[in-house]
Design brief:
Helix content is 44%, strand content 10%. The chain is α/β, with parallel strands linked by helices and 224 residues long. It is globular, with a radius of gyration of 17 Å. The structure holds 1,6-di-O-phosphono-beta-D-glucopyranose and magnesium ion.
Length: 224
């Protein structure tokens, strides 16, 4: 049977729920700046880089022109300190349901496993989760020119493997991430609500519902 050659995972919201830690850390900074935002606004930050997220929050709070670049770097560092503090509590128990068995079955089938996270903390998070050894290639977010929704991080992993885009499957929980996968011309798996994953080729409400067979059967339908 024809099989894809690589599964390329997003981290936050797909492998573990650090999306919640990002939300909490940004809210702490938002409170200090007098900018209040809710979960639905937070959806627009998922998959977006640290500085990109800060710009969006400042624009949302009508403070886009209030801070110098130097001050923005300081604010982003403050948020990161709060985030690192929150993720320091992560353990192996925090891998989302079914992800370990999916990683194991990809290994057994000799399908490559990649990580395409926008997070500069990705290495630390997967170490805390105890899953680094599963990954054949991990993109370094500090070296990716354009963040999601640009395809760069998914293309970086694909080039790392030397595969064609049609041979790769990307998995994402954010609209910006689905757009990045589609811009890379890959098959896109969405985790979450349909309304927040427009353009995905297959959507699962959560990782528990995602199985290797369901993903690959849908991917096969698009192969000639
Ligand atoms: P950091 P992903 C993304 O990770 C998060 O979804 C996004 O909320 C965050 O701003 C971004 O990483 C940068 O993270 O501040 O740790 O560098 O979803 O692409 O795995
Ligand atoms: Mg994500």
């Amino acid at each position: 049977m024809l099989l894809p050659k690589a599964f390329i995972f997003d981290l936050d919201g797909v492998i573990t729920d650090t999306a919640e830690c990002h939300f909490m850390a940004w809210r702490i900074l938002g409170e200090a700046l007098g900018i209040d935002f809710d979960r639905s606004f937070n959806e627009t930050l998922k998959g977006v880089s640290r500085m990109g997220s800060l710009e969006r929050i400042l624009t949302y709070g009508n403070k886009a022109d209030v801070y110098t670049n130097e001050e923005k770097v300081r604010l982003a560092n403050e948020k990161n300190k709060a985030y690192v503090d929150l993720v320091s509590k992560i353990t192996k128990e925090d891998v989302l349901p079914n992800i370990l068995s999916l990683l194991q079955s990809l290994r057994n089938k000799n399908i490559k496993i990649g990580l395409a996270s926008a997070s500069e903390n990705a290495f630390e998070v997967i170490d805390r989760l105890g899953i680094r050894h599963y990954f054949d290639y991990i993109a370094d977010a500090t070296k990716i020119p354009n963040s999601k929704p640009a395809p760069d991080v998914f293309l970086d992993v694909m080039h790392g493997f030397g595969f064609e885009s049609t041979e790769c499957i990307g998995i994402e929980d954010a609209q910006a991430g689905i757009e990045a996968i589609k811009a890379a011309n890959m098959f896109a798996v969405g985790i979450g609500k349909k309304s927040e994953l427009i353009g995905a080729d297959i959507i699962f409400e959560n990782t528990e519902k995602m199985t290797f067979d369901l993903v690959v059967n849908q991917w096969l339908k698009g192969q000639n």
